[in-house]
Write a structure and sequence with these properties.
Length: 178
């Protein structure tokens, strides 16, 4: 019986997934960097973010062994894009496949015709890191932009969001276009 319990526990362990490293060029798959505008706002923002910070912060939520998870940069990049462009969990795969800048922002090296994970993984990730983890992500984005975010950016933080389950407006950080 103890063997079955330990086997069940091992099946629940999830280790950190890794993005592919930029190595040798592929003849049939061009690099995203070869055909995107490197001065696009998402490219500049992706290059400005310290993605290793998130790897360090969230690596404690993962095991050293087990099935590989969705890479942390991909998950956090998608969450930031979701809030930045006000896209829902179920719609992000469609937009991500269509927009090469979304793929680059999330750490993609080659163009992909398929979204790399199921949208339900957003729920699993939010449950894993909790409210404190989500706050770290958005605190980093606010810290990165500083107090000049309202002057220079076309996005501002909104303090209100409609919560459908409670049926009222509640304070919640959210990015919206001006």
């Amino acid at each position: 019986m103890q063997y079955l319990v330990s086997l069940w526990y091992k099946s629940l362990q999830i280790m950190i997934g890794k993005l592919p490293k930029k190595g040798q060029r592929d003849l049939f798959r061009p690099l995203l960097e070869d055909f995107i505008d490197m001065n696009h706002e998402l490219v500049l923002l992706a290059n400005k973010i310290d993605w290793s910070y998130f790897e360090k912060e969230f690596s404690s939520y993962y095991s050293k062994n087990g099935a590989p998870s969705v890479p942390i940069r991909l998950m956090i990049g998608c969450l930031l894009l979701k809030y930045l462009y006000n896209i829902g969990d179920e719609r992000i795969p469609e937009v991500w496949v269509r927009d090469v800048y979304f793929q680059y922002f999330c750490g993609g090296i080659f163009f992909s015709h398929k979204f790399p994970f199921d949208p339900s993984d957003f729920v699993h990730f939010r449950n894993r890191v909790g409210e404190a983890g989500i706050e770290k992500i958005f605190a980093y984005s606010v810290k990165m932009h500083g107090k000049e975010v309202e002057k220079k950016s076309k996005f501002v933080l909104s303090e209100r969001r409609y919560n459908r389950t409670i049926r009222h407006f509640q304070p919640m950080p959210r990015c919206v276009k001006r």
